[in-house]
């Protein structure tokens, strides 16, 4: 008798294979991603087969159906590059409670003005969604709701409604009955996503899939999911703040360097075309330990304020607490201040944060961070109307950054009268004095009053 073929096991994240099942992938070290894929098959033959459509010259391809259609939410259209493309599949991921369902319900109501929209929820009942829609004033006769958890039932709703936009909240709650595995598992998510993508491509339906995230902020499910969809959006924000930011991690139809800003309120979610004022503290008199910088999120310059507090410590290992800034970057800048600028803060507690819940990860924030720490250590306030832009190196030098002209124009627009920038990035700007510095010592001289340097 012929010997039965042995099954193999493969990691759904990285593709690593093994002859027996293991709980943890030996290649990417992910838990619970190794699945049985059956016996290895021979190489696929290249025999001719029926084609879906004959090949045509590229000049004869119709592009009318490939143009993006605006959603009516300007900040979302900015990130997408103009709107949603018919037949395109978008994955929206974010932490629980950040406002993903609220955002999509607003989009569904706006798009329902031009045609039917189908909103399929697997996490809530239709009554719960209706109550939220009433609160958001997002009711429309062309907005259809359905509570389903199987792909087959969803396809039946698509046949009955014929929507131009399909929203599935969320892909982790949907199941394919013919596939083994629990809902939300690697196998189920892959098969469900594949079926929804085929449905969208065959019928030209714009589709939005809501995805969960893991504890470290990455999208839950197989990595293949991000490769299958056309657009991957990350919806970010602190649940204690009303500010929300939308970023494109992948976009086949537009840029990936744009950012959308929203404000989550009791009556819905509102786009913020000019969010710079949210990241500043309005005060009558300058306070020590604060410095303003101009960061660039995507193509948009944003004014942000960095606050620092240096306090004496009796602990053998002083505290270093950060909020809104990279802790490793903060430790590096404080070490450079200690060694290159002779500011003795190694035995002090240092607390650093941003205003408005914004996260600043750009290196151009280094100079403002250094000036804020120095200002707090000497208990001397920086002059009013001062902004600092520049990256700080380990040798204490202030390095050039990109987009200085846009940053200076934004600072001038909001009333700032003086800016400290790297010496090789000095560009004239009407209405604002630009001071070029080459190292931290020159920056401290330019920023602090003459009697406090």
From TrEMBL:
One of its GO terms (biological process) is recombinational repair. ATP binds at residues 94-101. Residues 65-213 form the RecA family profile domain. Residues 349-453 are annotated as: Lon-protease-like. It comes from the Bacteria. Transmembrane segments: none annotated. Pfam families: AAA_25 (PF13481), ChlI (PF13541), Zn_ribbon_LapB (PF18073). GO terms for molecular function: ATP binding; ATP-dependent DNA damage sensor activity; damaged DNA binding; hydrolase activity; zinc ion binding. SUPFAM superfamilies: P-loop containing nucleoside triphosphate hydrolases, Ribosomal protein S5 domain 2-like. Keywords: ATP-binding, DNA damage, DNA repair, DNA-binding, Hydrolase, Metal-binding, Nucleotide-binding, Stress response, Zinc, Zinc-finger. One of its GO terms (cellular component) is cytosol. CDD domains: RadA_SMS_N. PANTHER family: DNA REPAIR PROTEIN RADA, DNA REPAIR PROTEIN RADA-LIKE PROTEIN. The middle region has homology to RecA with ATPase motifs including the RadA KNRFG motif, while the C-terminus is homologous to Lon protease. DNA-dependent ATPase involved in processing of recombination intermediates, plays a role in repairing DNA breaks. Stimulates the branch migration of RecA-mediated strand transfer reactions, allowing the 3' invading strand to extend heteroduplex DNA faster. Binds ssDNA in the presence of ADP but not other nucleotides, has ATPase activity that is stimulated by ssDNA and various branched DNA structures, but inhibited by SSB. Does not have RecA's homology-searching function. Plays a role in repairing double-strand DNA breaks, probably involving stabilizing or processing branched DNA or blocked replication forks. Belongs to the RecA family. RadA subfamily. This is DNA repair protein RadA. It comes from Halostreptopolyspora alba. The lineage of its organism: Bacteria, Bacillati, Actinomycetota, Actinomycetes, Streptosporangiales.
């Amino acid at each position: 008798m012929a010997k039965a073929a042995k099954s193999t096991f493969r990691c759904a994240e990285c593709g690593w294979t093994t002859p027996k099942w293991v709980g943890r992938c030996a290649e990417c070290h992910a838990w619970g991603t190794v699945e049985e894929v059956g016996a290895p098959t021979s190489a696929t033959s290249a025999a001719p087969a029926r084609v879906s459509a004959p090949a045509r010259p590229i000049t004869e391809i119709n592009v009318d159906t490939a143009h993006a259609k605006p959603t009516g939410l300007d900040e979302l259209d900015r990130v997408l590059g103009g709107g949603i493309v018919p037949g395109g599949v978008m994955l929206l991921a974010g932490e629980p409670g950040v406002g993903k369902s609220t955002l999509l319900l607003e989009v569904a109501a706006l798009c329902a003005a031009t045609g039917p929209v189908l909103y399929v929820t697997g996490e809530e009942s239709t009554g719960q969604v209706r109550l939220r829609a009433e609160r958001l004033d997002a009711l429309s006769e062309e907005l259809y709701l359905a509570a389903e958890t199987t792909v087959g039932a969803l396809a039946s709703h698509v046949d009955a409604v014929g929507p131009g936009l399909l929203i599935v909240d969320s892909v982790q709650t949907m199941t394919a009955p013919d596939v083994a595995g629990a809902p939300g598992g690697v196998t189920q998510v892959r098969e469900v996503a594949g079926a929804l993508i085929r449905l969208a491509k065959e019928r030209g339906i714009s589709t939005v899939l809501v995805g969960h995230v893991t504890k470290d902020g990455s999208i839950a499910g197989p990595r293949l999911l991000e490769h299958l969809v056309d657009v991957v959006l990350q919806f970010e924000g602190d649940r204690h703040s009303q500010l929300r930011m939308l970023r494109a991690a992948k976009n086949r139809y537009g840029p990936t360097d744009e950012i959308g800003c929203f404000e989550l309120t009791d009556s819905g979610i509102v786009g913020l075309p000019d969010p710079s004022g949210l990241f500043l503290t309005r005060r009558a008199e300058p306070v020590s330990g604060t410095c303003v910088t101009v960061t660039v999120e995507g193509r948009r310059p944003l004014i942000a304020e960095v606050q620092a507090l240096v306090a004496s410590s009796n602990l053998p290992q002083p505290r270093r607490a950060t909020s809104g800034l990279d802790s490793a970057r903060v430790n590096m800048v404080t070490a450079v201040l200690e060694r290159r600028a002779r500011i003795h803060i190694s035995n002090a507690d240092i607390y650093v944060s941003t205003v408005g819940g914004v996260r600043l990860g750009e290196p151009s924030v280094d100079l403002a961070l250094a000036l804020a720490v120095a200002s707090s250590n000497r208990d001397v306030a920086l002059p009013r109307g001062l902004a600092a832009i520049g990256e700080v190196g380990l040798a204490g030098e202030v390095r050039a950054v990109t987009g200085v002209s846009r940053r200076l124009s934004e600072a001038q627009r909001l009333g700032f009268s003086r800016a400290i920038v790297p010496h090789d990035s000095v560009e004239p700007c009407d209405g604002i004095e630009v001071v070029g510095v080459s190292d931290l010592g020159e920056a401290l001289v330019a920023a602090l009053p003459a009697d406090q340097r």
